Amino acid sequence: MTSPRIKTRMLAAAALLGSVAALVAPASAADAHSRRSQGGDIVSAEQVAELTAAEVSGLLRGQIDSSQVRYGVTAYRVVYRTTNSSGAPTTASQLVALPRSAAHRLTTVSWLHGTTVYRKDVASEDPASDDRLAALLFASTGRAVSAPDYVGLGEGEGFHPYGDPRATVAASVDGLRATRTLTHRKGRELERKVQVSGFSQGGPATMLVGRALQDEGADRYFRPGALAPVSGPFDLSAFETAAADDRIEKSGLYLAYFATAWNKTYGLYRSPSDVFLSPYDETVEGLFDGYHTTDELVGKLPSKASDLFTKDFLDKIRHPSGVLKAKLRPMNHTCDWRPDVPVNIFHGRGDKDVDFSHAGYCSAQLTRNGAVNRLTDVGDYEHNESMRQALPRIIRFFDAPARNR
User: Fold this and answer.
1) Which whole-number Å values give the CA distances from 352 to 232, 248, 249, 303, in the listed order?
2) Is 348 in contact with 382 (CB distance < 8 Å)?
3) Facing residues of 144 across strands?
4) How far is Cα 57 from Cα 68, in angstroms, rounded to an integer?
5) Dist CA 202 CA 12 (whole Å)
6) Do 224 and 214 contact (CB within 8 A), yes or no?
């Protein structure tokens, strides 16, 4: 993908999140009780920004259309309790953005970010990040915004289980609960219906969270109101194969993040030398520790997968079996269900990181299940720019159901 997140975000590929009740459900009754009693509890909340409408527009100018800005925004960095990929208690962080409006009850947006290798390159930490700007834009239209950093990023504990569906749902749903608590402390309330949107990795995450809220009983209060995934790799197997074949810019970085994270989470290989060519087999795992930026990784690793990985591993990516095949399968079906709410899939035909065919793949799965959905081509834009072009359209899409209620 073209220089993820401009400076530091490797988008993409990833995402991969799948949706299977078994992957998201608590592993035991004790787990379930822990989630009920702790999931979403606030550990700390710190105000990080207070902006007028004019200041929000100024930050967006030249990057994202600011014509829909109506209100100023107050934003908070919130650390809250959640669970990791194994269901064990942990903490995660997020940005919560609230409009400086007179409204007592607020519609909520859950904004789910794309692939991020550096733990500080998230909405709660980086004032200049695309995800911070997206959250400010949504909030400036009068909405409350929950923008989770996911597990293992921001101020969260542990490592980031990249693309793990269980941890993704937990961090996102518990983030909504924490947002509701904080909003209540400020004397306001949240509507039950959540408008969920996300970019790249956050595209499949959007569908995953929507399904968890609608069909899997992830929360007693919140329900999906509309779903708007952007430029997501909905056919993860195809995406990883494209990376293995060097058909994606910086395919080596994408695939290395995928391999090291999935090995920590699921166990894909016994030794780095089984996967990485020398001398990278001795260093690559340490580079993906959450404390190296994308620029640092670009300087230390080859951009082509063929120069970084063993031929045997690349063949396994092209023809997965065993645990890799089992974990990829649900990630290829995040759209394979029937939402009861409006769905609009946004993508740009100029995307060189995640091919436009992924949007059609998602739409076809939804259609087969009888779900009404729309596919919106935002134009001939590269990966990151497709998100910036989509955001104003997403707001109009989210506004439409409200007008028709």
Assistant:
1) 12, 7, 8, 15
2) yes
3) 108
4) 9
5) 9
6) yes
Q: Cβ(48)–Cβ(95) under 8 Å?
A: yes
Residue 376: C-alpha distances to residues 192, 195, 230, 389 (Å)? 27, 17, 10, 11
Residue 284 φ then ψ, to 5°: -65, -40
26 backbone φψ class: left, alpha, beta (φ>0; ψ -120 to 50): beta
355 lies in the same domain as 324? no
Domain assignment present for residue 334? The answer is no
Other CB atoms closer than 10 Å to residue 22's CB: what's the count? 9
CATH number, domain with residue 26: 3.40.50.1820
Mean per-residue pLDDT of the chain: 91
pLDDT tens column, 183-206: 999 999 999 999 999 999 999 999
The predicted structure's pLDDT at residue 2:
40
Residue 38 has pLDDT above 50, yes or no: yes
pTM: 0.90
Q: 51 and 154, same structural domain? A: yes
**16 domain-assigned:** no
